[in-house]
Amino acid sequence: MKFIDDLDIIYPYTYDSSNMKGYAEMLFIPSNIAELRNGIIKLYDENIKITISGAGTGITGARVPSGGAVISIEKLNSIYLSEDKSSVKIGPAVSLKELDIFLNDYGLFLPPNPTEYNASLGGNVATNASGARTFKYGAIRNYVKSLKIVLSNGDLLSIKRGENFADENKLNIKSEKGKIYSIELPSYEMPNVKNASGYFSKENLDLIDLFIGSEGTLGIFVEIELEVQKRPENVLGGIAFFDNKNKLIEFVDILREKSISNNKINIIDNNNITARLIEYFDIESLKLLKAKYSEISDDAIGAIWFEQEYNPNFEDKLMSDWYSFIENFTSLTDLTWFALNDKEHEKLKEFRHELPLQVYENLTSNSQKKVGLDCAVPINKFNELFDFYYENCPKLGLKYVIFGHIANCHLHVNIFCQNDEEYILAKSFYDKSIDRALAFKGTISAEHGIGKLKKDYLVKMYGKKAIQEMINVKKIFDDKLLLNIGTMFDIN
Ligand SMILES: Cc1cc2nc3c(=O)[nH]c(=O)nc-3n(C[C@H](O)[C@H](O)[C@H](O)COP(=O)(O)OP(=O)(O)OC[C@H]3O[C@@H](n4cnc5c(N)ncnc54)[C@H](O)[C@@H]3O)c2cc1C
Fold first, then answer.
1. N or C: which terminus of the chain carries fewer CB neighbours within 10 A?
2. Which atom of ligand 1 is nearest to the CA of 219?
3. Pocket perturbation via mutation, ligand 1, pick of 20, 52, 99 by most ligand atoms within 8 A of CB
4. Atom 36 of ligand 1, residue of closest alpha carbon
5. Could you tell me the domains of the chain?
6. What is the pLDDT of residues 59-79, one digit of tens each?
7. Does residue 406 contact residue 280 with C-beta atoms inside 8 Å?
């Protein structure tokens, strides 16, 4: 067991992709679970604060330490496929990319598709990550079958989905050491939208769901079992460019409607147009992307990336249907980039991924600050929020981009600020937007989590009592309050 105190080695673990910077005095990189448990017991005995580090792609400062020790799980990177090929058991350090390459060889995939392929699955489960395909498949929560969790006192919990439900709001779990942990669930009601804000809590909760999305505040995931599925063989994708914003929104509304029946996304293997993902790029996003993609037309005011799984017997018909469908909403139909094979799909994915990368690049190379909205609202309120963004954001006179998961009524608004004055201006727009989203029964964070940047807004969303209820839960699993302190909420 080795604790590293060389600050140069520790430095890369003191920030994340939010550009927030912290500090730590110690770094611990265990080679296996036993070593992790011995190390964490030592830290626990000495009352040393612990921050859990995944791959550092988080954009809310969740893994940014404020003193104490960082535990990096980077060496826990095993992958085992179950015999019936329906699930994988992995170490938390396995990245989305590594898992995808592994599964591809077996014709399998993990349905949710968070954009950042370098993120660890441990980080993904800790933030309940989701991505473009979440429209059809939901967030990563839906695929977590079991978790092994090391607590700050070194104890180990093994939780399987479907085995331990709350009796109303009470839950008990027995650890490996035989200790019973008894909790009372927070009493707030979660919004009925895509959500990654605060602990998951509802009546008759499955215990595993409390830990998913808990942002490392309750324990360290050391083994994750995920359901995997047969990789769809035939996927039709495209990026369509639009010359009119209202028409673009009309296109999205109709496409969303075509893809949903009885509140469920259709099983998409027929000969009709439906979408498993619908992603939005506004004109400012296209301007940013032009640095790398000079072929983007000056006439385009926005674009939509879509994908549909389909039956190959209908390929020609579907291609022609999509073309005609798009034609109803834009005169730029001929510029549509269509994709049918892996190579073509990769190009579209790269285009989408390039946007947050350009945002990050913009921030770091110009030492700017970003104000970033991550709200989702119910479908019937989405267009109102969309109009609010566009009525108010351009008035700030600051550089911004609006893009993302329009299928889930969830857009990212990123505003770039050069100085404190601009930051205050952007923050006032941010506050008003959050108020709108909450008034519409939406969420302050649909996928990035709360981290250290959105704590005040979590109080706004659920109220002070709810925060105290979350802290009470944390105290049961982390009695000395050592783990990821300052993430999700402050403890006074
Ligand atoms: C370009 C870009 C695109 C992105 N796109 C998406 C997207 O489409 N969807 C999305 O949801 N997010 C997205 N993100 C955000 C980020 O990738 C996710 O939040 C991701 O889940 C973080 O994983 P990580 O391994 O980098 O975790 P880190 O940033 O290292 O940590 C995040 C949180 O997880 C905790 N944690 C990490 N590992 C463990 C563990 N083993 N046990 C317990 N807690 C742990 C940390 O303590 C911290 O609280 C994007 C980020 C970037 C930079």
1. C
2. 43
3. 52
4. 123
5. 3-72 (3.30.43.10), 79-230 (3.30.465.10), 235-373+375-439 (3.40.462.10)
6. 999 999 999 999 999 999 999
7. yes
